[in-house]
Every structure is written in C-alpha cells, then in structure tokens.
Amino acid sequence: MATTAAPAGGARNGAGPEWGGFEENIQGGGSAVIDMENMDDTSGSSFEDMGELHQRLREEEVDADAAAAEEEDGEFLGMKGFKGQLSRQVADQMWQAGKRQASRAFSLYANIDILRPYFDVEPAQVRSRLLESMIPIKMVNFPQKIAGELYGPLMLVFTLVAILLHGMKTSDTIIREGTLMGTAIGTCFGYWLGVSSFIYFLAYLCNAQITMLQMLALLGYGLFGHCIVLFITYNIHLHALFYLFWLLLGGLSTLRMVAVLVSRTVGPTQRLLLCGTLAALHMLFLLYLHFAYHKVVEGILDTLEGPNIPPMQRVPRDIPAALPAARLPATVLNATAKAVAVTLQSH
Amino acid sequence: MMQPQQPYTGQIFHPTQTYTPTTSQPFYGNNFEDEPPLLEELGINFDHIWQKTLTVLHPLKVADGSIMNETDLAGPMVFCLAFGATLLLAGKIQFGYVYGISAIGCLGMFCLLNLMSMTGVSFGCVASVLGYCLLPMILLSSFAVIFSLQGMVGIILTAGIIGWCSFSASKIFISALAMEGQQLLVAYPCALLYGVFALISVF
Q: Are A107 and A160 within one domain?
C-alpha cells in the first residue's frame, strides 16, 4: 500500500505557488543592489558560468533558498573584476527570472501529479482485474464496481500496439503514408480514447452513472480479450478459429462491459442505445484489427478470383498495375484487398 | 550552503587575496597543469561504467541502489551506437528508428515511473538505466547477423533476451526507487519497449 506523496502535491492546493513566489521576490531575487562582496576574477562569459553553476547545484538547493544563500555568504575580494561581477549579477537575475517563469508554467500546465493516484496498484490487483474483465457478472439492480485505475488499461493498450506491430511485420504490411509504429499507436490509442469519450458522451445523454475515468478503465480492460484473440490468430491462421475466438473471447469481454453499463443505467431505451453502441463498436474493432493488419488465408482469394485459379494455390501475388489507378486508400492492406481491387478492375 | 567557498576570514583589507575554489571543480583561467583530466571533466568514469555493465549482465546479482545516483549517458550512448552498428552488419540501416524509439521509450518510462514511485526520478537516470540494459539486445542483434531469428530458436532466444533486459532494468529501478513488490509492474513496460527493439532486430 502506498500513500500519495504530500510534497509532490505541493501545487495541488492553490495557495502553494503564489506564496512561494511572493517569498522569492522578498528575498532579493530581483534586487537592484549590487553586492560588492562576491568579487572574483572571472569576467568572461557570465551567462554560461551561471548556467554551469546552476546545473551543478540544482539537486542540492531549493529555489527559494538559493537567492538568499547567494547574497549571504560571500567574501570581499577587492575591486578586481568589477565589470565581470556586474554582468554576472545581471545574468544571474535573468537566469533566475526565466527559470521561475518556466517552472511556474510547467507546474501549471504539465502537472501529471494529478494522475498519480490512478497508478497506485499492486501486481495481484492487476492480475485479478485482468481475469475479472473476462467474466460478466449478472447484477443489474445495483451499480457494479469499476476499478478506477489507469495502469492496467494503459499497459493493455501498449500491448495491443505491440501485437499489431508484430502482426504487421510478420505479414509484410506496407503503409504508404506513415509508419507502422505510428499507425499502430494511432489506431489503438485512438480507439481507446475516442470510443471512451463517445460512450461517455452517450452515457451523459442516457443519464448513466459513470465517470470518464471509469469509462477509460472499463474499455481499457475490455481490450484484454482483443489482445488474446489477436495474439493467437496472428500466429495461427485458421479462419474458423478466429471466428470462434471472436465470438467467445470478444463476446465475453463485451458482455462484461455491457453488464456494468446496464447496472448503471435506468430505462430500457437508454440501456439499449448505450450497450448496443458499445457492443457493436467493440466487436467490430476486433474484426477490423484482424482483417486490416494481417494476411488472410489464401482460401478467400480463390473464391473471389473465380474458377480459373486452382484451389489452395499459395502463390504470393504481385500488386496489380491497376491498383494505383483505382485510388485505394493509402494503406495497402493485404492479399484480400488486392484481390478485391483486381476483381473491381476486371468489371 | 551552495558553493564550497572559503569561509570569510576577516581579511577584507587585503586586496591581493584572490578567490580560489577549494574542491576539485574545474575552473576556467587556471593554468594547464591544474586542469582535471579530460575524462573526469566530461564525467566519464570507466570504472563506474564497468560496474554498471556487470550489474546488467548478471541478472541475479542484487543491484546496489546508489549506483544510479550519477547520471551517466556515455555508456548508454555507446550501447545504442553498438546496437545500430550490429543492425548495420545485418544490412538494416535503422539508426533513426533506434534513436526515435529510445527517445519515446525513455519519455514514456520517465512519466510512468514518476507516477508510480514515491520519490521522483530524473530523466537522465531513466535514460541511463534503459540504455545500460540494452546490452543483451546487442547480443541478439549480433546473433541475427549470422543466423535468421525467424524460426523457433529465434523466437525462444528473443523472448529470453527480452526477459533478461527487462528483468535487469526493473531490478535496478526497484532498488533505486525503493518500490518493493512492484517489480512486475515496472518490468512489463520495459519488456514492451525492449520488445520493439527486438522487433527491429528480428525483422
């Protein structure tokens, strides 16, 4: 069990940054008085000096103390290097001001600490949630509990990306406008974030009791079934096997999500709309992933080409010259798509 | 106290006294003999590099939490270049992919580890650890120069090497960040990252 770190959440309550900035201003970070005590011989490139100095001392000091400490301890060393000292002070003040502004902007806009509680999990919890995502629970009178965490869903999305990449590589899929990695990441993250948002919007319309985080977690864990099905069927190319797994594993994970949503929605029309949409999108996504990113067994080619081709011919087919003229989408999918193109051309 | 200066000794009226640093920090404008050696100035310490390499290569050796206190990117840089070079030997000019995947992977692991650990972690530390643990992947890609990895032997070897890399990386992260009981949770994203590197090596 891990507690959320209080120091890390310093920017969470609104009073933190403002008070810190106020103190810094008082302590002379913007002082116009030149301190004659810090004299030294270096009158060279003072900005780089400052940069190197702060680079070294960054881990040891707190920003608020730095300005105070610099003014306090020093040593009067005579009038040598007065000009160097002046430019050094100016450079120092510029550096401090710039750094303050940058860190303030960063802590305001890029504060990922708000996501910290959602990653506080144990391996046993993740394991049990993965297994539970395949087991639908028929309790529709009370809202079913949804684990509000993001580690499991995020890892599952990345796993799906990896499986897609593996499938594309083994089937020599060529992506014309883009990269394999970009396509895989875009597809998986786009599905997870896009469909979650869409279903959340529908849930808002249908008055369902579910938050965005819960929807993200639910859909994320629902991708576990997809991962298993794709991992198996990208390596064992049997059509019947894929359809069986599609119905079985895809259906189980969809049923689980549907049951959760039904338990949190009131009214038959609303339930039908919400759950129907989710079920359709989830099942169709699995179908799309299988057919779009991997070679299909050549048996399908034979039925499309007609009687001229002998059955079970496993000859790699060239991309026909007519294909660019047909202006198909940029992704050259697989042998089935090529065969469809050839059929279209011949008509 | 920020800077190790000499304490003020009350010699304010001695104009000839000059400021000198008391530690071995390099100081511009000193004469040639007083400059530290080049490797020390660059922060490349071969003994530490060797220690960290041994920690990665012995997956069952207990990692010392303090070895990652200094951010050392020289070793990882060498390993990334060696990985690209072994891929080059196999006819794949994919330095760009190695660079891109390692940059994005380090960024992702940095965000994830900052969210999962009690103490934060710096980007340099993450990059350093992930770079060092790339070493077994170099073995895989050098194996791929001579033998094809697309058979059953290749699959088993690839899986073993990915496991080795991610186990070492998670072991070092766990000991450096004191995240007991979460080694599997850290190892899995490392395994995904090294899996992508393995994908480049194999195909």
A: no
